[in-house]
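Amino acid chain
________________
===
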Amino acid sequence: MTRYYGIFNEGSHDNGIAPERFEFQMLYGIRRDLQSALAKEGYRVRIYIPFGRQWFPYFTRRLGERPANVGFVLRGILGEH
């Protein structure tokens, strides 16, 4: 899991926020392992796919926000898990 997940999970649990009161939103193809793990733990996970005329600039901007995402996308494309 990620550091942010751990912080959020502890905070929501400590403050009595039930998992059905929130969801994790993740970009398609990014950290599929984490998406599956969260869903198996009973969390709601929303996977979104950019579309429309501006999907490519949006997608590249999101990849640029965190360079490690490029590796996740490439592994997803190449079928490595």
